[in-house]
Here is the input.
Amino acid sequence: MSRPAIDLHTHSTASDGTLSPAELVRAAADAGLDVVAITDHDTTAGWDAAVRALPPGLTLIRGAEISCRWHGVEPAVPLHLLAYLFAPDHPEFVAELARVRLAREVRGERIVELLRADGVDISWPEIMAAAGGGTVGRPHIAAALIRAGLVATTTEAFGADWLGERYRLPKEDVDVFRAVELIRAAGGVPVFAHPRATRRGRIVPDELIVELAAAGLAGLEADHEDHSPAEAAHVRALAAELGLLVTGSSDFHGTHKTVRLGAHTTAPEAYERIVAAASGVTGIASG
Ligand code: AMP
Ligand code: ZN
Ligand code: FE
Ligand code: FE
Here is the structure.
């Protein structure tokens, strides 16, 4: 039997993906995946619908991508932690995620106010409606800019003239050490998402990753479309040095990005380590 295809980072309409959780798991099966993780930004809202729609032969890993910030430099650096198989009812973690989702709405509305002050005719209520209750983010504002005919693509909307710089505002994220602590407290397994993605903006120094490893970080995402081959190799070497597991994933967002499900994958050995380290919820294989 060939090695299973494992993609541990995808988004649905529960955040800024464009497939519903049910469509996402069906697309994962159609793409030939054996294991898929649903990792919407700062929410577990897509979990149940994904479980209900799980096609035969596919294993679902329930997770989330947590919006974090490192306060070791000024201004603080935003970063993402993937959290796998944590208990979705851990009170402090639940409260922190709700706070971040609200902060995203406050920040999104302020970005739209800045754009409107410059004569850009997009509407916050319309963007919230289009997000359909999912965790709102800049891709939703990007979609409104596209609908208004102001930019052609999401990539263009994330350029320096738009959401990448001129109209970029920080959001009130979770302190990264607090996030590691909360994920572990909820029985979950924290993995640093795209840690060397310089093309997205500032990155954190390796010294922080050393500290995070000591604080309970379990792994690093190496193979990701925002890493060059050299960046992925650097992440792999750092993980080996620190005894961290290494993942690869598509970070699939439907039509908000061009990457396909399974574009990068995780080795079965690393996946098994995540499953073995988790105690919050289990992976679910359908019938
Ligand atoms: P936010 O969480 O609101 O700050 O928005 C960040 C989201 O936008 C992440 O999920 C990224 O996947 C997506 N994103 C960031 N940079 C880009 C880009 N250059 N092109 C398309 N999507 C991007
Ligand atoms: Zn996203
Ligand atoms: Fe991310
Ligand atoms: Fe992501």
Summary: The pocket of fe (iii) ion (ligand 3) is lined by residues 65, 80, 193-194 (CB under 6 Å). The CA atoms of residues 62 and 276 lie 14 Å apart.
